[in-house]
Structure formats: structure tokens, C-alpha cells
Amino acid sequence: MCSSDLKSLNRLLHVELGFRTDHLAIMTISIPDARYNNDEKLIRLQSQLEASIAQLPGVKRVGTTNMLPLEGNGNTNWVRFVGRPYDGKHNEVNERDVSAGYFNTIGAQLLKGRYFTQADDATHPNVVIINETFAKKYFPSEDPIGKRFGDTNLTPKSIRQIVGVVKDVRDSSLDEEIWPAEYEPFTQSTDDYFSVIALTAQDEQSVLPAMAAVMRRIDPEVGLVDER
Fold it and tell me: Which pTM does this prediction carry?
């Protein structure tokens, strides 16, 4: 291996991931549309699943996300900022739907503001957490907390207020550029395909069967796509 290859390898080995990599048990599920055909049903299922897995022996924290770290850039939104002139440019950002417990479960670092809470639901104004790259790109000399953005038409239901900034969590491969990312609370932005992540106090493999059993007990018709 030449010196340039060694330098490249060394650089990749020291890439900051932005999340913990140990003691995480992951279960990805696919929910049948016919049985869960509205947001209320999806939120109830997600909440019940998360709460039940949190009670399992050896589980310390639980969170959910529709896109796991390192799965790749994609599932994006085009955003436009309230109070700024708009030239039609596509400001593309990764979009992730996560539960209130997600960031603490994966060990993501809060840099400013707050994490989501259970109060961030459909009865309250839409909120969003952004990553550090988003903040640096679109608010290089401003405090992003309290700023608002939405879709390219600023449709009222799309507008969200920034309540937190997290240190970059790497969404794609180690040698790819980190994209701006926005995180929306699952209680305001549901998905019928998501992953449950459990932070364990013991070997994570030993917890997976119990997690799957919880899912089958709650609803055996929900598809278990992947366990890792």
C-alpha cells in the first residue's frame, strides 16, 4: 500500500461519526398502510412500541428514525426561509423523522437549543432540529434558534421553527460530504417505515429477540424488515 493510500485509510479511520457505535440494537419495521391509514394510528403504534421496548431488561434508552445514520444521503426536502428573498434556488437538505428519544439514544450532541419532547405534537406549532452543517450553510452569522423555514411555496403547514442544533451525524459513507439535515418530530411528521434503536446495557444481540417479540405481540401483521 502506497503512502497516499495509507493517509487516506488513516483519515477514514478517524472520521467523526457524530453518534455512538456500541450497544445499539436496531429493528426496522414496515407498517401496512391499510391498518395504519392515518397519523394518529401511526403515532400510537410508534409510541406503544417505543415504550414497551424501553421496559425490556437491559434496555437503557429507545428512539426511532425513518433513516438510520450511514444509510446514505437522500429522503430530502427543498427548503425556503421565512423573511428572506427567494430566487427559486433549490436548497436541498436531508430530512429525518425521529422520536423525542432518538438523539439521546444514539448519543448525538446538542450544540444549541433543545431536543424534542412529547409536547411537540400535532396540537402545537411545528418545530425542527437542524444539524451543524445546516446552521453553518444557511445561518453563518446568525443564531438559527427561532428562525423558520418551509417548502418552496412556504405552505403554512410546512413551516417549522428551529428549536435546536445538533452536532453533525454522518448520514452517508465516511468519504462523502456531510449534507445539511433537518430532523422533524415523529409526532408531527409520521412515516410507515422506521427503525427502532435501543441502547443496551448488555450485548445488543441478546436484546434483539425480545424486541422482535414485543413487535409481534403488539401487532403480528407489522413487517420486521431487518434486525442488526
Answer: 0.92
